[in-house]
Amino acid sequence: MTFDIFPAVDLRGGRCVQLVQGVPGSEVVSLDDPLGQAVRWADMGADHLHVIDLDGAIEGTRLNAPILRRIVGELDVFVQVGGGIRSRSDVAEVLDTGVDRVILGTMALKDPPVVKELAEEYGPDRIMVALDVRKGRVTSDGWQRTLESNAVELGIVFESFGAGSILFTNIDTEGQQLGVDPEHTRELVEAVSIPVIAAGGVSSLDDIKLLSCAGAAGAVIGTAIYTGTLNLREALELAKTL
């Protein structure tokens, strides 16, 4: 099994940003050329990208669709996309742009059986479910609502409904460049048989090794590569050896 590195391109108001724990106004990074950033990562060797429409995730309106279309149209890389995908028409619209995989968060949590229907329609490899966890509990609605369930419980449910993969985000470490907590990732990986991509706090080569040892199939890297804390080329080279 390969370990995939996903540079994050988070979109907010037409800009490429990185937030701390998803809180609006907490921008550590705010750049005015999202396409240019995506090209930058591809030029450094990235063959996967993680694109999130934060306006869609937080406010429910996907304002950055034109930027997404340009990224997909100009780059020959694997692109997974989330943020504000709340309906079947949203799923169809995003996949029709040429995106390889959609990330379902709130939509899946509110109506788990829809995952089965979408997996049957588009294929499980194109349907990923996001489990974003704060203090051990899954959140929804752009991380603004906390549920009673934990990631292991819901991971098992969504695998049974045909999800092809899971994005597991540890909100407690997200955007803080303080390292990862691999144990929660390990628990989820051991509970399901589908790939788990980990996110939240990845800021060193050691973090990548820890997530690989925990069984993750890949990692999303955001703030650390924008601030220079982590060199993307070195991360990609390491991933080839895992």
Could you characterize the architecture of this molecule?
An eight-stranded parallel beta barrel has the order 1-4-5-6-7-10-11-12, surrounded by eight helices. It has helices at residues 34-43, 54-59, 65-74, 88-96, 106-110, 113-122, 151-160, 182-191, 205-213, 223-227, 232-239, and strands at 4-12, 15-18, 29-31, 48-53, 78-82, 101-104, 127-134, 137-140, 145-146, 165-170, 196-199, 218-221. It is 38% helix and 24% strand. It has one domain (4-237): TIM Barrel (Alpha-Beta Barrel). The longest helix is centred in the first third of the chain and has 10 residues, at 34-43. It has eleven helices and twelve strands. The protein has 242 residues and is an alpha/beta fold. The mean pLDDT is 92. It is globular, with a radius of gyration of 16 Å. β10, α8 (182-191) and β11 form a beta-alpha-beta unit.
Radius of gyration: 16 Å
**SSE-based structural type:** alpha/beta
Q: Helix count? A: 11
For the biggest sheet, the summary is: 8 strands, parallel, barrel
| Widest β-sheet, arrangement of strands | 1-4-5-6-7-10-11-12
Question: How helix-rich are the residues, as a percent range?
Answer: 25-40%
Key descriptive features of the protein:
single chain; 242 residues; alpha/beta; TIM Barrel; 11 helices; 38% helix
Helix-strand blueprint:
Layout (H helix, E strand, L loop, with lengths): L3 E9 L2 E4 L10 E3 L2 H10 L4 E6 H6 L5 H10 L3 E5 L5 H9 L4 E4 L1 H5 L2 H10 L4 E8 L2 E4 L4 E2 L4 H10 L4 E6 L11 H10 L4 E4 L5 H9 L4 E4 L1 H5 L4 H8 L3
